[in-house]
């Protein structure tokens, strides 16, 4: 077994680095669409009470 069989190739490593860089790219456009969007605090997932189910209706 050669070492190339056990370690990722340089191309595979470069592709992985490129993929990870795209995920954290600070140049990505994250400008808010409006002033309201820029000044609105994020809500927790359950801040609006969650999701109702059929059991809740009964």
Structure notes:
With 58 residues, the chain is mainly alpha-helical. It is built from 4 helices and no strands. It is flat, with a radius of gyration of 23 Å. The model has no long low-confidence stretch (mean pLDDT 75).
Give the key terms:
single chain, mainly alpha, 4 helices, 0% strand
How is the secondary structure organized here?
Layout: H1 3-6, H2 10-23, H3 35-39, H4 54-57
Number of strands: 0
Structural class: mainly alpha
Runs with pLDDT <50, length 5+?
Answer: none
**Main beta sheet, described?**
none
Q: Which bin fits the share of residues in helices?
A: 40-55%
Number of helices: 4
Order of helix and strand elements from N to C terminus:
HHHH
Mean pLDDT: 75
Rg over C-alpha atoms, rounded to the nearest angstrom = 23 Å
Shape: flat
End-to-end gap: 65 Å
Beta content comes to under 5%
